[in-house]
Inverse folding.
C-alpha cells in the first residue's frame, strides 16, 4: 500500500508517461502498474491532463539572431581573474588594518577606564581608626 | 570548433574568443528562449532574460571552471555548462520584478502547434489558449518546475538543482501545479482533452 501511495505521488508529480518518472523508481512503478488496476486508473487520469498540456502553445522562436546577439554581448568587458598573490595581498592588508583598528580601540578604551579607576569622582574620607577605637 | 564541448568553448570564450562564444549562443539560444518563455509566459521578458544570462556567461567566462575537470575530459562537460547556464536563466526568471502581461497577450505570443493531425483547428486553438491561460495563473516556481520536468524533459535531479531545492520540494511543486491545472481545465479533461 505504501508503494501504491508512492505511485500516486509519482503520477501526481511527473504525469502518466513512464519516460518522465525518475529512473530509479521506474521499473518498480511499471511493475505496480501491471499488478494493480487502481494504479492503471491513476495513470489514465494523469494521461488526460498530459494530453491537455501537450496542447500548450509552443514558445515562439527567438527574434534575435544568435550571431548578432553574441557579437553585441561580446563588446562588454569580461571579469578578469586576479592572481592568487594579489588576492592574498589584499586579504592580508584588510586583516592587518582590521587588527590594528581593534588594537587602537582596545588601547583607547582600556586607558580611559584605567584613568577613571585611578581617580574616583567622590572618594569617601579615610576613616580615622583612633576615633572609633574603644582603647 | 563545431565538435568541441560546451566547456571547451567556454574556456575559449574566457580567453576572449568571440567565435567560441557565438557558437555557445547558437547552441543554446532557442532552448533558453523557450524555457524562459515557458516560465515567464512573456516573450519580451524571456528575450531580455536570455540576453542577461548570456551576458553573465560572457563576463564570467574567464573564471569558468567545470565543477569536475575529469568529467569534462570524459566528455561529460556539456551538461555541466548547460546546468550552470539554465540555472542562471531560471534564477533570472524567478527574480524578475515585472509582473506578467495580461493572459490574452501572453497567449498570443506563443505559437499554437496546429500541424499534427485532423483536429478541429478552432477548437484546438481555444483549448490551447485555455491551457496557456491556466499555466499563466500558476505561481512562477510551480510553472518553472513544470517547464523543466514536463516540457524540457529534464530529470528530477537536474531540475531540482536548477531550482536549488530538494527533490521532495520539486515533486511538491509539480503536484500542486498539476492539481491546479486539473482544477482549471477539469471540464476539458472530462471531455477527453484533445479528443
Amino acid at each position: 500500500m505504501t508503494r501504491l501511495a508512492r505511485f500516486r505521488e509519482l503520477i501526481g508529480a511527473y504525469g502518466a508517461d513512464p519516460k518522465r518518472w525518475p529512473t530509479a523508481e521506474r521499473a518498480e512503478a511499471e511493475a505496480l502498474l501491471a499488478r494493480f488496476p487502481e494504479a492503471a486508473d491513476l495513470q489514465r487520469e494523469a494521461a488526460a491532463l498530459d494530453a491537455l498540456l501537450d496542447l500548450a502553445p509552443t514558445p515562439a522562436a527567438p527574434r534575435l539572431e544568435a550571431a548578432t546577439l553574441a557579437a553585441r554581448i561580446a563588446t562588454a568587458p569580461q571579469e578578469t581573474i586576479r592572481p592568487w598573490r594579489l588576492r592574498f595581498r589584499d586579504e592580508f592588508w584588510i586583516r592587518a588594518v582590521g587588527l590594528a583598528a581593534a588594537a587602537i580601540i582596545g588601547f583607547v578604551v582600556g586607558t580611559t577606564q584605567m584613568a577613571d579607576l585611578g581617580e574616583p569622582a567622590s572618594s569617601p574620607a579615610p576613616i580615622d581608626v583612633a576615633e572609633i577605637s574603644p582603647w | 570548433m563545431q565538435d568541441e564541448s560546451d566547456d571547451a568553448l567556454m574556456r575559449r570564450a574566457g580567453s576572449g574568443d568571440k567565435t567560441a562564444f557565438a557558437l555557445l549562443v547558437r547552441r543554446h539560444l532557442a532552448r533558453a528562449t523557450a524555457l524562459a518563455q515557458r516560465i515567464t509566459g512573456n516573450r519580451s521578458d524571456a528575450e531580455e532574460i536570455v540576453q542577461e544570462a548570456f551576458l553573465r556567461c560572457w563576463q564570467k567566462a574567464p573564471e569558468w571552471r567545470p565543477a569536475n575537470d575529469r568529467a569534462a575530459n570524459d566528455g561529460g562537460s556539456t551538461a555541466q555548462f548547460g546546468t550552470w547556464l539554465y540555472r542562471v536563466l531560471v534564477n533570472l526568471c524567478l527574480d524578475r520584478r515585472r509582473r506578467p502581461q495580461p493572459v490574452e497577450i501572453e497567449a498570443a505570443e506563443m505559437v499554437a502547434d496546429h500541424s499534427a493531425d485532423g483536429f478541429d483547428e478552432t477548437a484546438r486553438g481555444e483549448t490551447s489558449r485555455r491551457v496557456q491561460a491556466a499555466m499563466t495563473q500558476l505561481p512562477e516556481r510551480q510553472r518553472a518546475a513544470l517547464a523543466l520536468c514536463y516540457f524540457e524533459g529534464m530529470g528530477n535531479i537536474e531540475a531540482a538543482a536548477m531550482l536549488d531545492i530538494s527533490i521532495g520540494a520539486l515533486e511538491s511543486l509539480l503536484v500542486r501545479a498539476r492539481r491546479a491545472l486539473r482544477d482549471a481545465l477539469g471540464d476539458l479533461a472530462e471531455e477527453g482533452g484533445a479528443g
